[in-house]
């Protein structure tokens, strides 16, 4: 039998993890995952979709029978495992390094173009 209380508890835990790890705090599970976007892998999005569909079916007494509990449990384990493995500090360091890398590349490219222009005009 499908336990709605346990289901809601697990879903609240996933929402809390999404808020702590990615800073998304409004909406249901699917809208939160949509806000996370490409920062999460496709398997996490698929797991969130399975959980969301189970949530829709759990609200209807006749459709509740069609919920595949094994698939929902696997989706909870997959999504929870991914969210627990996200390191917020490492993500921030990665974003800062990406910005600094792009900035340094653009500066080097601008200097190379300036040197090429100066050489072409005969000033160097």
Fold and architecture overview:
- The chain is mostly helical and 124 residues long.
- Helix content is 77%, strand content 0%.
- It is built from five helices and no strands.
- The protein has helices spanning 4-22, 29-36, 42-58, 69-85, 88-121.
- Helix 1 packs parallel to helix 2 and helix 3 (42-58) crosses helix 4 (69-85).
- It is rod-shaped, with a radius of gyration of 23 Å.
- It starts with a helix and ends with a helix.
- The model has no long low-confidence stretch (mean pLDDT 94).
Give the strand tally.
0
End-to-end separation = 81 Å
**Which spans of ≥5 residues are poorly predicted at pLDDT below 50?**
none
Report mean pLDDT, rounded to a whole number. 94
- Rounded to an integer in angstroms, the radius of gyration calculated over CA atoms is 23 Å
In short:
By secondary structure, this protein is mainly alpha-helical. Helix content is 77%, strand content 0%. The model has no long low-confidence stretch (mean pLDDT 94).
Keywords:
single chain; 124 residues; mainly alpha; 5 helices
């Amino acid at each position: 039998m499908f336990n709605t209380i346990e289901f809601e508890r697990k879903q609240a835990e996933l929402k809390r993890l999404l808020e702590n790890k990615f800073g998304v705090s409004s909406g249901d599970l699917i809208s939160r995952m949509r806000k996370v976007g490409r920062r999460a892998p496709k398997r996490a999005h698929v797991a969130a979709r399975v959980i969301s569909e189970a949530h829709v079916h759990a609200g209807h007494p006749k459709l509740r029978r069609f919920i595949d509990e094994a698939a929902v449990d696997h989706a909870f384990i997959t999504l929870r495992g991914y969210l627990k493995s996200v390191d917020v500090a490492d993500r921030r360091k990665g974003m800062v390094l990406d910005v600094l890398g792009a900035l340094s590349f653009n500066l080097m490219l601008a200097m190379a173009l300036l040197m090429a222009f100066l050489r072409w005009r005969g000033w160097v």
